[in-house]
Amino acid sequence: IQCFFWMFGIHGAQVTGPIIEPLLLQNSDVNRIAYQAGKELPNIITYEFLYNFVFSGGAGCLFALAILTFFFSKSQENKTLGKLSIAPVSFQVAEPLLFGFPTILNIKMLIPFVTAPVVTTLITYFSMSMGLVAKPVGATIPWTTPPIIAGFLASGGRISGAVIQVITIAINVLIYYPFFKLDDNAKLKSEKND
């Protein structure tokens, strides 16, 4: 839902946050208490699950798009954007790509922008529910913590939290790639015509 708001230039987390964050924080606290008591963690869907595992690179899982623009751009515009956006997006500040690429009001980017978080949610949720990945322990990890480090810390220092983030980021790169390539080719063609 957050990503749909972002597509129209409305800060999705600010709209949905007052509704879902109290519930997520409550689940996080229940997990924290269970973790401190050495008991089974009851909740997967927590604040850390959403903001540290699902939204890697901010809204729309834009860390994947930052990787693509930084390493694979052929157009000068995207090369410059890649250099400018990789650092902030690594700290979950997605605005350089939201407004610079842009993903906001860009119907061509709607599919990956909405699909990547859904796929990440499903993969991470089922990996945690099957016991392949440690659940979030309820430790409040700042939302600006870079991906992979965030997964490691949110899962209580378990490597499985970092590994699932590497896997989902790689999948998100694959999701974004065809859409990025279309955009990059169009910008490259425009630059050659100018």
UniProtKB/TrEMBL annotation:
InterPro entries: PTS_EIIC, PTS_EIIC_3, PTS_Sugar-EIIC/EIIB
GO cellular component: plasma membrane
UniProt domain PTS EIIC type-3: residue ranges: 1-179
Keywords per UniProt: Cell membrane, Membrane, Sugar transport, Transmembrane, Transmembrane helix, Transport
Main location as per UniProt: membrane
PROSITE patterns documented for this protein: PTS_EIIC_TYPE_3
Domain of life: Bacteria
Listed GO MF terms: protein-N(PI)-phosphohistidine-sugar phosphotransferase activity
Coiled coil start-end: none
Keyword Ribonucleoprotein among UniProt keywords: no
The protein, known as: PTS cellobiose transporter subunit IIC
